[in-house]
Amino acid sequence: MSADTSKPLAPGVRPAVGWSLLGSELSVLFRRLRTWAMLLALAAVPILIAVAVKLSSRPVAPGRGPLFLDRITQNGLFVAVTALVVCVPLFLPLTIGVVAGDTIAGEANMGTLRYLLLAPAGRVRLLLVKYAGAVAFCFAATVTVAASGALVGVVLFPVGPVTLLSGDTIGVGESMLRSLVIAGYITVSLLGLSAIGLLISTFTDVPVGAMAATIVLSVVSQVLDNLPQLDWLHPWLFSHHWLGFADLLRQPIDWTSFGANALLQAGYIAVCGTLAYAKFSNKDILS
Amino acid sequence: MKEPSPTQRGAAAEELAVETHGLVKRFGQRAAVDGIDLAVPRGAVFGFLGPNGSGKTTTIRVLLGLASATSGDVRVLDQSMPAALASVLPDVGALVEGPGFYPFLTGPGNLMRLDSADRHALPATRRQRVADALDRVGLTHAAGKKVRAYSLGMKQRLGLANALLRPRELLVLDEPTNGLDPQGTREVRSLVRSLAAGGTTVFVSSHLLAEVEQMCTHVGVMSAGRLVAQGPLAELRSAGQRQVVVETPDAERANGVLARLGLVPAATPDGERPIEARAVMNGGLAGPAPEVIVAALVADGVRVRGFAVEDASLEDRFVSLTGEGFDVVG
Amino acid sequence: MTRAKRRWLPALLIPLALVLAVLTGSVQAGATVSLPPKTADEVLAMIARTQVRAFSGTLQQTAELGLPDIPSSTPGVTPGAGTALEFLAGSHTARVFVGDPTKARLQIMDAMAERDLIVNGKDAWFYNSADNSATHLQAPKPGAPTETLPSKPAMPTPEALANRFLAAVDAGTEVTVGEASSVAGRSAYRLSLAPKDPGTLVASVSIDVDSETGFPLGVHVQAKNQADPAYSLAFTDLSLTAPDPGLFQFTPPAGSTVTTKVLPARLTPVPDADSSPKAPSPHGTRVSGEGWGSIVMLPAAAVPAGLTSNPQISQVLQSVSGGRALTSSLVSVLILDDGRVLAGLVPLERLQSAAAAQ
Asked: What is the C-alpha to C-alpha distance for residues A19 and C55, in angstroms, rounded to an integer?
């Protein structure tokens, strides 16, 4: 054999945890053109909102349109919050659905799944790494919207102290901090959907199917959440607390919905995660 | 029609790299693999031969833990599968059912990605090992290109490079010459030989007889989910029968003479050549010498225009084993 | 195959564990608390003696009066009759902060919006985030130093509501102590007020009283023909420490529309429609009957103009002989064609016969 620079570890020697697979997953995810296209599309949402408000000759009437739309002209920092409100119901779930639905099914479709397993990545480890990648994307997507909103707001509109829902006013620094907490809240909100996408992804070799199913579920969940006849079901829907980040804009911050949301998402992660584990570890990789 | 030869039973005593007992894999009611007992000796180049759809790839998937066996035992490198997957697979390089790569990454990018999935692989040497593997399969020139732009042959080479990322004890190559031009095929052949010379056991599946004949020391033949024969190539070949072929317009008379000499008349392969008579020599060893046969034919007035004693080709052997023809094109 | 089955095991066990956790959680929440037994008089005395003056907490208000669905407050609706009506259906969450007796803040937490009432000495502000409007409410006589806005009674706390019911306790009410319960994480005595009058719609009113401080933690009104409480107001979270005084400082945010209003005698509309039957009658209001079954009658002149033309109100009214009526599991209101209004915690028939008796 040609110059071999490594020897296999002696049997019995515990191998490294192998963070490099996670690193590789992240680099593959964020080097993909598709990922960048989605992030750019998300970044465009606040820009569109801000430009539309800037160009519109008519001032926005208070209480019309999404949260804080009327206040953007007075304070650019509101662009980020308004954009997040706009993105949470559809655009963010759409992109998360693509990434989470692609996790396993995408690898199976490209034929790389069998080679990852032969490496051997280990099925549980691969599942965890793929989920971690989806979670990283959730955070990146949310932060992209918030950061793009903050930037375009600063460029197009005056910046000053921010009015909370309670009518109190906080400084620019604290408003940045709260934006970050909101980004965290939305990331947590999307964890359940990511776990659902991962689960669906283990059932198919057709990534588009898994993506579509995940996105459809996110819409269905939101529709059910709006049917008053099903109010017994509402607290169990993964989208139930999606817009609850408004509680972070009150004075003082109300952490109740943050906690309830985190608990709910953790439940979805536990259930979908174990189902995905059971399905994936028993799956015959025939792709 | 299995023919366990005495030497095969002896092979069980020697160290086996791959071993299965009563391996069955069903998809619903259909048994893709129907109770096979593989025995691949260490250091062998084992040709896993069979027509498309005979269960070769499914067997390989089960061996490598990609699919679970419905029943039966599998041992790879002396460890029970799939229990020992994590400790066995790092020593196994594989190319299963064609290459699978991220089209948006470069060739080296893909190899780095797959290598990082292996917890046993040292990250420090990753770059060097990837470069070495690419060099071995002759892909260094395409290192900067995205795999999207690779031809099928280049992808196949990249798949081989992936199997060679680390020193392996066992290489499992499923149809390694698919999509390669004759030059590439030759290169793969010599690569396999050099690996085998280094002590690596190579398990090559193919539906191409010529390919197997040219690089393998051992052969297993699959047909419709069953392993119909396995053993050293030479043994299988010698187990075949020698044939006497007489070119003559008096085919019937010639057959009579041959039968009288104790040879069993055989059908001519394509029936279009009535000027030919064929007969099988019993056991392939004993029997009258060729000159005796020719003398007897001539003495009987058979107009002998050509005469040959043919060793049974592996092809004939496999046709008789599987009842199917093979693509002989290399 | 057994290996495969084993892998499905966690997928069964974890959801099972979660269901169990949820079930035990809800069982624990409803678990009875053991407290030293107390008589009704002792609990009443506890309420009277309560020393809780400063606190912050979250209130959950639920009304299931059997009214037709009222559209939730649309943005831009100014506080008024329509908004008050909103509290007669569905559930609302509010946070309440009470500092010293002159400082209080109420936050009604709507989806993506909030309405705030801040009382600080002589100043009071109402802020609505939906339309970014702030209303400065001033006491009727701004100059008078003794005149401060009422703070604690103005906050619709269980305590305020309990006191209203307790003021109405008379011989016609049976007061008992029920099983102890847990409210907002605190153990509480449950005081039950049951009207003996068969004519009223009220089955009972129960008041959860904090076992430690005597502070009312929740009030639940049970209607006769309904299993679920018709109305309940209770803390889901309560802290008995003084809130940050900064919460009571309110400056209208930049860009908000500010209006100033001099307050009439009454403050904000109180969520409960039940006004004390023995209240003085300023506009010629007459009260007939006694206790729980009493009926309030307003002459046409005392009824605010345009009451029935309010679209939100007219939506819940139904036509009956002689006028239009609002019937619910707890309250009935009859608006006669001649403009008079009758209301009471009684069935509609009693209002009609009372109207006929005039």
From this structure: 50
Nearest Cα residue to C157 out of C117, C202, C194: C117
Q: Tell me if A195 sits within 8 A of A268, measured CB to CB.
A: yes
Subunit contact C75:A163, Cβ cutoff 8 A: no
The pLDDT tens digits for C57-68 are: 999 999 888 776
Give the span between the Cα atoms of A7 and A14, in whole angstroms.
14
Nearest by CB to A267, which of C18, C95, C132? C18
Distance in angstroms (rounded) separating the CA atoms of residues B232 and A249: 77
Q: Give, to the nearest 10 degrees, the angle between helix B152-163 and helix B182-197.
A: 10
Contact C249, C120 (CB under 8 A): yes
Element (H, E) at C8: helix C2-29
Of C11 and B322, more confident: C11
Contacts of C244 (CB under 8 A, 6+ apart): A252
Distance CA A179, CA A173 (A): 10
Residue C137 in contact with partner chain A when CB distance is under 8 A? no
Picking from A245-249, A274-278, C235-239, C251-255, which range would have the lowest pLDDT averaged per residue? C251-255
Contact C324, C308 (CB under 8 A): yes
Prediction ipTM score: 0.85
- Percent of chain C residues topping a pLDDT of 90: 14
| Chain B residues in contact with A3 (beta carbon < 8 A) | 132
Q: How far does chain C reach from its first CA to its final CA, in angstroms? A: 85
Q: What value does the mean pLDDT take over residues B207-213?
A: 82
- B66 inside 8 A of chain A by CB: yes
Q: How many residues does chain B have?
A: 330
Bridge partners of C336, per DSSP, are: C323
The CATH fold of domain C40-262: outer membrane lipoprotein receptor (LolB), chain A (2.50.20)
Tell me how close the Cα of A80 comes to any Cα of chain C, in angstroms.
Answer: 15
Ramachandran assignment for C265, one of left (phi > 0), alpha (psi -120 to 50 degrees), beta (any other): alpha
Of A112, A125, A286, nearest to B67 by CB-CB distance is A286
List CB contacts (< 8 A) between C254 and chain A: 74, 160-161, 163, 169
Can you tell me the mean pLDDT for C339-353?
Answer: 86
Closest CB to A1: pick one of B87, B128, B167.
B167
Q: Give the C-alpha separation, C226 to C91, whole Å.
A: 17
**B280 pLDDT band (50/70/90 cuts)?**
low
**Tokens 């989605």 -> residue:** A38
pLDDT bin (cut points 50, 70, 90) of residue B330 is very low
Written as six digits, the tokens of C36 are: 């030293």
Biggest CA pair distance of chain A: 75
Answer whether residue C142 shows pLDDT above 80.
no
| Weakly modelled stretches of chain A, pLDDT under 50 | 1-13
Residue with tokens 């407290």: C35
Cβ neighbours around C266 below 10 Å, total: 10
Residue matched to tokens 């659902």 = A196
Query: Hey, where are the domains in chain A?
Result: 19-282
Neighbours of B15 (CB within 10 A): 12
Helix H or strand E segment including C116: strand C113-120
**Residues near A150 by beta carbon (within 8 Å), at least 6 away in sequence:** A76, A77, A79, A80, A176, A179
> Diameter of chain C by CA atoms?
87
B88-139 pLDDT, tens digit per residue, is 999 999 999 888 999 999 999 999 999 998 888 888 889 999 999 999 888 9
How far is the alpha carbon of A101 from chain B, nearest alpha carbon, in Å? 17
CA distance A44 to A234: 32
Domains of chain B: 6-237 (3.40.50.300), 241-311 (3.30.70.100)
Residues in chain C: 358
